[in-house]
Design brief:
By secondary structure, the chain is an alpha+beta fold. The chain folds into 2 domains: about 220 residues, Rossmann fold (3-Layer(aba) Sandwich), CATH 3.40.50; about 100 residues, no CATH class. It contains 9 helices and 20 strands. The strands form 4 sheets. A 6-stranded mixed β-sheet has the order 6-7-8-3-9-10, with helices on both faces. A 5-stranded antiparallel β-sheet has the order 13-12-11-14-20. Strand 1 and strand 2 form a beta hairpin. The two termini are about 35 Å apart.
């Protein structure tokens, strides 16, 4: 079990990590998600022993790793550029860590074959790295990381350089491999869909701090903070006055079980039901087709809300809709 206790790193007196506490249990995949500059890669480097801490402790099963160098921590690292050795073939790359720890030739060959089969690259052992596609290189890098059976693997945007279709395919495969092998992993990404697809637990970072942690389902249902809601794509956040079991958004009043007072509410697309007899009217200001549905942006007074519709709506056309109160999320600023 990995334990990060009050990890703090300063760059020119600016906190890159600010008292971060994070635990990764055996067999758990934790995705650290956040925008560029939030500290997620610094956290990964601190865990690996590549970044010196100003304050805090990285421990494994309760043992402080402060004086343990990176190569002796038993962790595997995989980065976005893969860092494959161009002068070695696929087998040479995958067996590199095994060779460094002194495994026999027979054991190395057996393990390489096992790992290449795991990542779907049977019969690729003698291929040159330059002969491989980006996706195949990613698989080789993953096989090399897994080959020495590290107790923890650290992945920094490992598929960020690939095109979207290939990323979606590989992230599904990686999740299957992690589950099948019982891998313990810390996975850094800025992509919400990637984090939700690969992880058991998602940790959201902002300005060096861990601001939200939970399962993908928990975070989606209750982002808690406006920053997290916007990171998830909930761009419509409005002020509301709650009284007598109702929330007044200014342009519509909906039922609410929030306590009386002023609140900030996130209105996801799921809360907007397009209906020809809807009581609310708006104007379509943007429309995008995506996988069988249309993503709409609808202007109502001085706000823009998101919605989805199976039917096409043209720019500047008028649509009517209702707000589903149970889908609205309360967030803190």
């Amino acid at each position: 079990m990995l334990q990060c206790l009050r990890l703090s790193v300063l760059f020119d007196d600016t906190p890159a990590l600010d008292a971060v506490n994070l635990t990764v249990h055996d067999g758990e995949v934790v995705a650290v998600m956040g925008p560029s500059g939030c500290g997620k890669t610094t956290l990964l480097r601190a865990v690996a022993g590549l970044q010196k801490l100003n304050i805090g402790t990285v421990a494994w099963d309760g043992r402080n790793l402060r004086d343990t160098p990176p190569h002796a921590r038993g962790f595997g690292l995989m980065f976005q550029d893969y860092a494959l050795f161009p002068h070695l073939d696929v087998q040479g790359n995958v067996e590199f860590g095994l060779r460094m720890r002194g495994d026999s030739t027979a054991d190395r060959i057996t393990r390489v074959d096992e790992m290449l089969s795991t990542v779907g690259l049977d019969n690729y052992a003698n291929r040159a790295i330059h002969e491989l596609s980006g996706g195949e290189q990613q698989r080789v890098a993953l096989a090399r990381t897994l080959a020495p059976s590290p107790r923890l693997i650290l992945l920094d945007e490992p598929i960020g350089a690939l095109d979207r279709a290939l990323r979606e395919h590989l992230i599904t495969e990686m999740r299957s491999i992690f589950t099948r092998l019982g891998v313990t992993a810390l996975y850094v990404t800025h992509d919400r869909d990637e984090a939700f697809a690969v992880a058991d637990t998602v940790a959201v970072m902002n300005r060096g701090r861990l601001v939200r942690k939970g399962t993908p389902e928990e975070i989606w249902a209750d982002p808690q903070q406006e920053f997290v809601a916007r990171l998830l794509g909930f761009d419509t956040i409005v002020k509301a006055k709650v009284y007598d079991g109702k929330a007044d958004l200014g342009w519509v009043i909906v039922g609410s079980d929030l306590p009386a007072g002023e609140h900030r509410l996130a209105i996801p697309a799921a809360a907007v039901a397009i209906a020809s007899d809807g009581s609310i009217e708006g104007r379509v200001v943007n429309t995008t087709y995506r996988a069988g549905v249309y993503d709409l942006e609808i202007a109502v007074d001085d706000i823009v809300i998101q919605a989805t519709s199976p039917e096409r709506h043209y720019l500047d056309s008028t649509v009517r809709f209702e707000i589903i109160a149970s889908e609205i999320l309360a967030v803190e600023q």
